[in-house]
Amino acid sequence: MAGTEVHTATNQTHRRAVQVIRDLPPACFAFVMATGIISADTYALGPTWLSRLLLTIAAGGLVLLAGMLAIRLWRFRPQVMADFNSPERTFGFFTIVAGTDVLGARLAGAGHPAVTAILAIAAAAVWLCLTYAIPADLLLARSRDSVLGGVNGTWLLWVVGTQSLAICAAVLIPAWPAQASLLAAFAVGLWSVGLVLYLMLVTLILLRWLIVPMTPAALGPPYWILMGATAITVRAGAQLLALPPGLAVYRLAAGFVSGFSYVLWSFGTWWIPLLIVLGLWRHLKHRWTLGYETALWSVVFPLGMYSAATGAFGKVTHLAFMAPIAHVMLWVAVAAWTAVAVGGLISLRRRPADTAPAT
């Protein structure tokens, strides 16, 4: 009897694992992004024990999700292609790039530049494929006349992935000073591409808001990336401003990077109250149930990145008023991470074996 129960439990666990992998959302690496950036925040501002703990969790999450993604590509390729061909979901694959780079940048700060370089090269390869394949698919292979209805906050993950590469290129310069000019040129170039992408994509999102009727279902957590994309652009800008002043590309771009980064920091700060209002409209007025979903990590990451960007930019530009803002937002992000993590664990325990995970 006991053996039968064990066998049944094993089969249920196996079915649940298969279902989780089959339905793995493209933006699942947002967990690594959120955990990695808060680890970086606490590495800079303390406490260091929390930073080390979150670094371990982020690294474990990256390995686990990479393995699950590999299995999904092998066993459930039609589901992967369906996600890739969906305008609402396809940009979520850029979390692979951003999650890998955020973890890589954190490891560089801990004295592991070789690991950072390996992760950055892998992320760059994924970014290079996605940054051309996704627009080409939307332009040339779409099955509908317009994709405007599919525009949402996840599209800005393209910006986040691009700026994360800029950060990795910049943080590697102290480890390879002989390649400083090349790495700096890459970093500034990627930052510029990310900036233009943000301006372009935020215009599309606002256009979608004005033309397509807004529903509670459409106004989900990924819209917080409107602020997260500005924050990571500011964080990348701060990293560029910390480059050796003797570099030619620094002399060329420093003034523009500094000024535009402050503009984006201000705009990102402006987004926060509006995003809160939109969330209240969704959950209070329309009584949308607030339960765990993978997309909630798309709220945690912007909060953590806003703290990191504020602290780093304030330090490099000597704007003292930014330091306390960074500290407050760090603990807001830690509280949000804890709440989402607890919600995720409860969701895993309660989910029956024949129920697909929330996306």
In words, what does this structure look like?
Helix content is 75%, strand content 0%. With 359 residues, it is mainly α. It has a single domain (2-350), classed as Voltage-dependent anion channel (Glycosyltransferase), CATH 1.50.10.150. Helix 7 (157-171) packs antiparallel against helix 8, helix 8 (180-211) runs parallel beside helix 10 and helix 10 (248-285) runs antiparallel to helix 11 (297-317). The protein is globular and about 65 Å long.
In short:
The protein has helices at 2-22, 30-45, 48-75, 77-84, 94-109, 113-140, 157-171, 180-211, 225-241, 248-285, 297-317, 322-350. With 359 residues, it is mainly alpha-helical. α2 runs parallel beside α5.
> Quick one: CATH class?
Mainly Alpha
**Mean of all residue-level pLDDT scores:** 91
Distance between the ends: 37 Å
Helix/strand/pairing class, anyone? mainly alpha
Our count of helices gives 12
The total tally of domains equals: 1
Largest sheet: none
- Strand portion: under 5%
Extended strand count: 0
Can you identify the CATH superfamily?
Answer: Voltage-dependent anion channel
Q: Shape from CA axes?
A: globular
What is the third-level CATH name, the topology?
Glycosyltransferase
Strand and helix order: HHHHHHHHHHHH
User: How much helix, percentage-wise, in residues?
Assistant: over 70%
The name of the CATH architecture is Alpha/alpha barrel
Low-confidence stretches: 353-359
C-alpha Rg (nearest Å): 20 Å
